[in-house]
Amino acid sequence: MITDNNIQRDVMEELEYEPGVDHTRIGVAVRDGVVTLAGTVENYVQKLTAEKAARRVSGVRAIVEELKVQLPFAPAMGDGEIARRIVNALSWDSALPRKGVEVKVENGWVTLSGEVDWHYQSDAAKSAVARIHGVRGVTNLLAVRKQPMAGHIRQRIVQAFERSADVDAAAVHVMTEGGTVRLSGKVKAWHEREMAERAAWAAPGVTNVEDNIVLSF
């Protein structure tokens, strides 16, 4: 049986092993498999990296992320300059549409809104913003634009699961209603859950994925 102490130890070791974060500035607490990360990081990318590292640990059921971005000593960057850099970064990214993404910056916190054609474009926009110096957090409100539904959408998603080495197709159940896909079932790791959700989003016409998959250890 994996105990909270085991999980805490493993998360701390995983953070130490992860070169993208300074583990000495991050505290880890665990209760009933729920991991709380607290402390400071130097940028938003490190914040995301720390959370991903914790999710890789077996036994983690959920993450409470209380990390704060504390920028290293440097002249403060105004919201206007941050917004300008974000707009430039988004325009240079060939994965993103030239129009449809709106940017708002308030005290270093970025809000993305508008519509994109595919879910991966929403992820790409958030990743591009995360790399901009001065960004303290991102709220991603980008919606996937409705498209004509491909036939047999459920069958295509199930077939994608069957092709994947990372997803146990028999353990994940798929239901569809319009552009919404509902996933349920039990998997053994966060990584498997994320791969299932990603495969569902990749199907043409999907505008929303409700991930009700639970972790079973």
What is the CATH topology of the largest domain? Histidine-containing Protein, Chain: A
Strand proportion: 25-35%
- Structure classification: alpha/beta
Instruction: Compute the number of strand runs.
Output: 11
Task: Give the fraction of residues assigned to helices.
Answer: 25-40%
- Approximate shape: flat
List its traits.
217 residues; alpha/beta; Histidine-containing Protein, Chain: A; 3 domains; four-stranded mixed sheet; 11 strands; 29% strand
Question: What does this 3D model show about the protein?
Answer:
The chain is an alpha/beta fold and 217 residues long. It folds into three domains: 4-69, Histidine-containing Protein, Chain: A, CATH 3.30.1340.30; 79-144, 2-Layer Sandwich (Histidine-containing Protein, Chain: A); 153-215, Histidine-containing Protein, Chain: A (2-Layer Sandwich), CATH 3.30.1340. It is built from six helices and eleven strands. It has helices at 4-17, 44-55, 79-92, 119-130, 153-163, 190-201; strands at 26-31, 34-41, 62-69, 101-106, 109-116, 137-140, 143-144, 172-177, 180-187, 208-211, 214-215. Strand 2, helix 2 and strand 3 (62-69) form a beta-alpha-beta unit. It is flat, with a radius of gyration of 19 Å. The mean pLDDT is 88.
Topology:
Blueprint: H1 4-17, E1 26-31, E2 34-41, H2 44-55, E3 62-69, H3 79-92, E4 101-106, E5 109-116, H4 119-130, E6 137-140, E7 143-144, H5 153-163, E8 172-177, E9 180-187, H6 190-201, E10 208-211, E11 214-215
Parallel strand pairs: 2-3, 5-6, 5-7, 9-10, 9-11
Antiparallel strand pairs: 1-2, 4-5, 8-9
